[in-house]
Amino acid sequence: MSAAGTLPPDERRLGAGAPIQDTRGDKIALACIYTALALFCLAILYPIVYVLSASVSDTHKVSAGQVWLWPVGFTLDAYKAIFDYDAIVSSFGNSVFYAVAGALVATVLTLLAAYPLSRKGLPGKGIIMAAFVFTMMFSGGLIPTYLVVDQLGLLNTRWAMILPTALAVWNVIITRTYFMVTIPEELVEAGKVDGCSDFGFFWRIVLPLSKPIIAVNLLFYAVGQWNSFFNALIYLTNEHLFPLQVVLRQILIQSKVDPSQMPDTSKLAQLKELQQQLKYSLIVIGMIPPLLVYPFVQKHFVKGAMIGSLKG
Amino acid sequence: MTTTETDARSSVRSAAHKRTRVAKSRVGLGLRIRRNWQLYAMLALPLIWLAVFAYWPMYGVIIAFKDYNVVSGIWGSPWAGMKYFERFVESYQFWKLIKNTIYLHVYELVATFPLPILLALFLNTVRKKWFSRSAQLITYAPHFISTVVVVGLVVVLTNPNTGVANKFIGLFGFGPVDIMGDAGMFRHIYVWSGAWQTMGFAAIIYLAALTSVPPELHEAAIVDGASRLRRMWHIDLPAIVPVAVILLILNIGSILSVGFEKVLLMQNNLNLDTAEVIDTYVYKIGLASAVPQFSYATAIGLFRSVIGLVLLVLANTFARRFAKSSLW
């Protein structure tokens, strides 16, 4: 019998500074939980690590199935091939632009919508909020939205990537909840007494107090823009405006490699050989930017999700 | 005696009530609106956006009841009544689309809905901080990878010639299989790659709900000799249920609109039998086809949205009555 089992339960808990002892059943349960979590983490990590390894391994070794976990025959050829393929380089630049511009526009819109809707006693607030929330449940659908974008003359412009999906109502709700929790009514009253206008209060008091939620919004929108491909698929036909995701889709999923994108024809043969390799390195390139940002902002993301869930 | 007392008290109360009401109404609605004009000015831009990109398309939905042509525009095109809805319901694609859409969504729901709950319960039980931190960091990560890359990852790993998945089953003497080209495999690949991507992040909301469990409950249960699993079952799980119900309602509301982008990305000529869902069909006949049928595609889209809305309302009513938690 284990030592823990012999002690009465309250002594186990109250023993001065002694760690809480588990019963044998609890120990087994805990061991199972740790194992399950570890296995799950491995299942998440394996494909990512494999692709990383394959992207820096010798093509033939990968095709022959010699790569299982670590790189075999280290080479960076696949990454060099990426830089020789014009469409990837230019679309990478486009994606950066869409992510930055899209995040800025969307965050400004979100803050402008969320702050007034967080204020108590604003006439018409309920109706406006309902107008926002209703769009989460019902939308015009694909074709009518497309026709609107067409009528506005936005087809084949950079705006088509940024404007139609600029505002996410979910973010408005989260941001509004954040304002309601962090900006007390007394502060608003005090501002009024001191003769501060609503604009001034928003600019000088609210924004400086809201850096975490601004960061969450910027990052949500930037990652969303970086990862989105459907807007580009339906609104853009001009290849010079394509974001990275569309080019990734062509190469990774449709296996379309366009020889005209290779200015140096001597490398064409090499590209054919590297095509499979290119896929691994491309997956890495597509994965890296959001994953690089993510550990730094994980806390904020979690906080954002939690604030949202508070209100439900 | 008591009645007069309460009468007196209530009359005092109602008088006080009246006074505050008078005080409030002294600031008239017009004045309150004028006083807040700057707040309305801030709302202007978002509201314009909402009108243009959310409500204008809703108006555009009427082309589902018209024979839309570009020259006459939305209003000028002749009415077509329910023609397009009838055509859709009677088309040979109808039952296949409905079946594929519902099957895919229900499979996804049943298979992946409990996973984040389990993950959250497990993470919440782990006492070693470094372990739960790194487990969270790892399991959230795939959420930030784009759908295109996830599908690309699946395609590359399951490639019949070079993919590691086929090398693996090759070890056991099975021949290479073209997993992506197999209509029977499509749903499994879709659902389980989705679980891989979303499970960790979906657990966040449950972890948030678990932080509201007072530690005293656990302490009391320990004193009473409750095992770890029992505490998980009787203390942690009930804290999660309200959130889970709400997420379930939302899921049921979107039963006809499965992850459209991902389905589209995973489609190829070989798996269309199971991989064609309502939304991808709308896209194909509406935008991707050489002769776009705007009205027909809009009608199908509207059909789907209306059913989704009805299901959402039904699920919500049901949950309010039986689970005591609901969206509204």
TrEMBL record, chain A:
Per the record, the GO terms for biological process are: transmembrane transport
The UniProt family comment states: Belongs to the binding-protein-dependent transport system permease family.
Lineage, top-rank taxon, reads Bacteria
Q: Which organism is it from?
A: Kribbella sindirgiensis
Recorded hits in Pfam families, A to Z, give: BPD_transp_1
Q: Entry's CDD domains?
A: TM_PBP2
Q: What GO cellular-component annotations does this UniProt entry give?
A: plasma membrane
Keyword Transport assigned to the entry: answer is: yes
Query: Keywords on this record?
Result: Cell membrane, Membrane, Transmembrane, Transmembrane helix, Transport
Query: What is the name of the protein in this document?
Result: Carbohydrate ABC transporter permease
Automatic annotation (TrEMBL), chain B:
Cellular-component GO terms for this entry: plasma membrane
Biological process, per Gene Ontology: transmembrane transport
What Pfam families does the record point to?
Answer: BPD_transp_1 (PF00528)
ABC transmembrane type-1 domain sequence ranges: 98-315
Name listed for the protein in its UniProt record? Sugar ABC transporter permease
What is the similarity comment for this entry?
Answer: Belongs to the binding-protein-dependent transport system permease family.
What taxonomic classification does the UniProt entry list for its organism?
Bacteria, Bacillati, Actinomycetota, Actinomycetes, Propionibacteriales
Q: Enumerate the CDD domains for this protein.
A: TM_PBP2
TM segment ranges: 39-58, 102-125, 137-157, 189-209, 237-260, 294-315
Q: Where in the cell is it found?
A: Cell membrane
Signal peptide coordinates: none
**Principal subcellular localization:** membrane
Question: What is the protein's membrane topology class?
Answer: Multi-pass membrane protein
What are the UniProt keywords, alphabetically?
A: Cell membrane, Membrane, Transmembrane, Transmembrane helix, Transport
